[in-house]
Fold this sequence. Notes:
alpha+beta, 2 domains, 5-stranded mixed sheet, 4-stranded mixed sheet, 5 helices, 12 strands, globular, binds FE2/S2 (inorganic) cluster
Amino acid sequence: MTDKETGGDGFRIEIEENGPYIVRGAPPLNIETITTDADGGSRDLEQGASFPLRDRARLCRCGQSQDKPYCDGSHKTAGVDLQETASFAPIADGAQRIAGDKMVLSDNESLCAYGRFCDVEQSVWREVSIPGQKHEDLTKSMVRHCPGGRLELWDKATGDSLEEPLDSGLSLIEDPSLGGLSGPLRVTGNIPVVSASGAAYEVRNRQALCRCGASANKPFCDGSHASVGFTDGLTDSEGSGKDS
Length: 244
Ligand code: FES
């Protein structure tokens, strides 16, 4: 495979029709827990237990496996509709653009993974418009943490992307401030995601893939894990230590 098909690190995620994610190239996989400030605002992601993968590991995307994060075949009897519904169009095409002081914020709401990093102190949509280094830094931090890539920043003067490259890897989002909720599979560092149809989604630095089975924008997370109360039971785990 070429670098473009697998990403520079040789990683790639393929979606099996009505089945799991097939992860090629054994990227690192860790728990990441959303940490909050005194006011309950999402502030950071704290790395937790690791789950080593072998090449072609199968990760659950129906939410029903008894061996999460791995697939145990439960999708065959779970009755969860795993049909992909997301657009293949560039994310920028479906985004609103909000011109701020020095930066432009683009917002494609269909990719909201409900990480709530955009609501610290005041919302990112307002923060981007306020002059000053403090507000610029906070805006960048909010956008960098936005797990699904709903929010992106652009230089207002040049139009260049201000995306900060992340290392390639996967993480299992945990959200304890919402009563022990679990969230999507966070995918960082331009790992290609390929549909069961063989078509590739736009390669992006930050992506969030649904692992609860309830998203209306599959394979991407749309925040539905919060309304269905998805929990993966991994928060006390030390990591399985086994390859899947
Ligand atoms: S994990 Fe977020 S909608 Fe399924």
